[in-house]
Amino acid sequence: MSKLRLGVNIDHVATVRNARGGDTPDPARAAILAQDAGADGITAHLREDRRHIGDADIDALMDALTIPLNFEMAATAEMQKIALRHKPHAVCIVPEKREERTTEGGLEVAREENHLAHFIAPLRDAGCRVSIFIAADQRQIEAAHRIGAQIIELHTGAYCDADAKWRAGGCDAEDDLKTRDAELEKMRDMAGLAQSLGLEVHAGHGLTYETVKPVAAFPEVMELNIGHFLIGESIFRGLQPAIAEMRRLMDEARA
Ligand SMILES: CC(=O)[C@@H](O)[C@H](O)COP(=O)(O)O
Ligand SMILES: NCC(=O)COP(=O)(O)O
């Protein structure tokens, strides 16, 4: 099986920095530490409301990194302009709702096919690999293929949420386990479909030490993007050991 890449998302280093409005902790410093710890790439999501990463962070990451940057952004003209200025290795198009706490679902591709095909064409022409953050849904994946995306990133949030509910052990624990396993099954099937269409398959959102292995074991998945949990875990064990443990679990699942 091919080696599974780990993309470390450093957005939530910026969340902590922004809580005080100063310069620390610095997301670019975290990205360099992640790079030194063996991350295969760095992911950063420039939200329209700049609630975590800001424009200057993207400048700093582009300057500092020797590993690829996966730039997550909404499909807006402003973001397209920023991406075209920087030409990161990859651009991942994500849905964004102002009032959401985190990215709630996958991009609606099927209904926006024409618009998105035109939107991603200049990004591809500029040499960026275009990825679509997507639910494990056949209709959406086929549409992602038709618009010319090279990659899909499966949203693992529903699986992780169901796993957390099951581990909490409420009175619906049995149903929660069934939901978790059904989400996993859906992702497995859709990873296979995407690969059969020639799409590269990535996955991420909400992954933890407890949830990473079943997803890492899908042979179609080439890259996992993991952030919030790793940044939280780094408070307790340090960023580099936190990343090393994730890497170990991914390798174990892949062996
Ligand atoms: C799209 C995605 O999953 C990531 O960007 C990640 O969750 C960090 O961003 P938010 O926490 O702002 O959703
Ligand atoms: N695209 C998913 C990502 O970058 C990381 O998400 P999370 O681990 O911060 O939830």
From TrEMBL:
It is found in: Cytoplasm. The record marks 153 as: Transition state stabilizer. It holds the Pfam family PdxJ. Keywords: Cytoplasm, Pyridoxine biosynthesis, Transferase. 1-deoxy-D-xylulose 5-phosphate binds at residues 11-12, 47, 52, 102. Pathway: Cofactor biosynthesis; pyridoxine 5'-phosphate biosynthesis; pyridoxine 5'-phosphate from D-erythrose 4-phosphate: step 5/5. 3-amino-2-oxopropyl phosphate binds at residues 9, 20, 206, 227-228. GO terms for molecular function: pyridoxine 5'-phosphate synthase activity. InterPro entries: Aldolase_TIM (IPR013785), PyrdxlP_synth_PdxJ (IPR004569), Pyridoxine-5'_phos_synth (IPR036130). The active site is at residues 45, 72, 205. Its EC number is 2.6.99.2. GO terms for cellular component: cytosol. GO terms for biological process: pyridoxine biosynthetic process. It catalyses: 3-amino-2-oxopropyl phosphate + 1-deoxy-D-xylulose 5-phosphate = pyridoxine 5'-phosphate + phosphate + 2 H2O + H(+). Gene3D superfamilies: Aldolase class I. Belongs to the PNP synthase family. Homooctamer; tetramer of dimers. PANTHER family: PYRIDOXINE 5'-PHOSPHATE SYNTHASE. HAMAP family: PdxJ. Catalyzes the complicated ring closure reaction between the two acyclic compounds 1-deoxy-D-xylulose-5-phosphate (DXP) and 3-amino-2-oxopropyl phosphate (1-amino-acetone-3-phosphate or AAP) to form pyridoxine 5'-phosphate (PNP) and inorganic phosphate. This is Pyridoxine 5'-phosphate synthase.
